[in-house]
Amino acid sequence: MTVVVENRSRQLIFPHARPIELTAGRPALLGVVNLTPDSFSDGGRFLEPDRALEHALQLAAEGADLLDLGAESTRPGGGVYGQGAHEVPAGEELARLLPVLERLRPLLSIPISVDTRKAEVARAALAAGADLINDVSAFGDPEMGAVVAAAGCPVILMHSRGALATMQSAINFRDLVTEVGDELEASAARALALGVARERILLDPGLGFGKSAPQNLRLIAATGKLAARGWPLVVGASRKSFLGTLTGAAVEARLPSSLAAAAVAASGGAVMLRVHDVAATRQFLTVWRALVDEAGEHEERP
Ligand code: HH2
After folding, report:
1. What is the pLDDT of residues 20-58, one digit of tens each?
2. Which residue is closest in CA terms to ligand 1's atom 5?
């Protein structure tokens, strides 16, 4: 397999935290901290603020480059998750999020991302010290673009199709990789038009969101093709159900599958991976990368 190695890395600048380097082939790790009762991977485990805070600090100590706090599960409905996640009112999302974010902010110098689809939540989170908005709906809320542009913060725009509650029952692609790439570029263009700076936009193919298990594999394998469009790419395969479809592994036993996905996404030039298991992924990627460098089988990108 050809491994993409970027000569140049570039800095991603945040409102509160220190910058991070974005380098294709050496992905930063975005550690997942779920403050939800119903996320597929760890729902309910960190609902209590003290436990969530402890978990966040643990992921930071394990070497997470950024943390992703999510207070609303976004499990897609219409497929393996039945009706999918319940939509949470903004007040409830903020009541789960702010007590953790406010206590965490002064304890960490790494950037804190907030995984939300709601402009009202993003606004309050940014005021409380969040550095990045991770929006799985890619500005589905018409106010979100203005909030992100005014804050001058980076944003992850993730690909999905259709409503969260039904998206797994209406999958329809003719040319998966081209369509996902085109639709991601269209969401980047919308963000630019709303005043978000080009250098603050990251794109994500949205594994599991309106895609079948084989389509998710195809998209991971096509990371290089998507990254070649020139936007920094984030990939979130960690513990997802399509890995279980292939292996039969239960959600808590999907670390080996998640690492295989991480290696291929990193090979394709992803600059960031959204992961639950930070220490293991860091260790795995360090050795993977050293071996790739040793083998010298890589293609340099100017
Ligand atoms: N996947 C989930 C949530 N947020 N954000 C990005 N950028 N990319 C992803 O692939 C992505 C995401 C999955 O959501 P959920 O069901 O809430 O579970 P968990 O947060 O444990 O992954």
Report:
1. 999 999 999 999 999 988 666 666 666 688 899 999 999
2. 136
| Nearest residue to 229 (alpha-carbon basis) of 195, 270, 172 | 270
Report helix, strand or coil for 3: strand
Render pLDDT for 153-204 as a digit per residue (tens, 0 to 9): 999 999 999 777 777 777 889 999 999 999 999 999 999 999 999 999 999 9
pLDDT, one tens digit per residue, over 70-129 is: 999 887 766 776 666 678 899 999 999 999 999 999 999 999 999 999 999 999 999 999
Q: Please name every residue paired with 22 in a beta bridge, in sequence order, or none if there are none.
A: 10
Q: What is the edge-to-edge ordering of all strands in the sheet holding 234-235?
A: 201-204, 155-158, 132-135, 112-115, 66-70, 28-34, 272-275, 234-235
Residues with CB under 6 A from ligand 1: 32, 34, 39-42, 70, 73-75, 115, 134, 136, 156, 158, 204, 206-207, 234, 236, 274
Tokens found for residue 53: 């805070």
DSSP for residue 232: -
Ligand 1 centroid–CA 299 distance in Å is 30
Residue 240 known to be catalytic: yes
Residue whose CA lies nearest to ligand 1 atom number 21 = 41
Which of these is catalytic: 75, 240, 254, 289?
240
pTM to 2 decimals? 0.94
> How far is the CA of 265 from the CAs of 2, 124, 141, 225, in angstroms?
12, 33, 29, 11
Which atom of ligand 1 is least distant from the CA of 73? 17
User: Is 274 a known active-site residue?
Assistant: yes
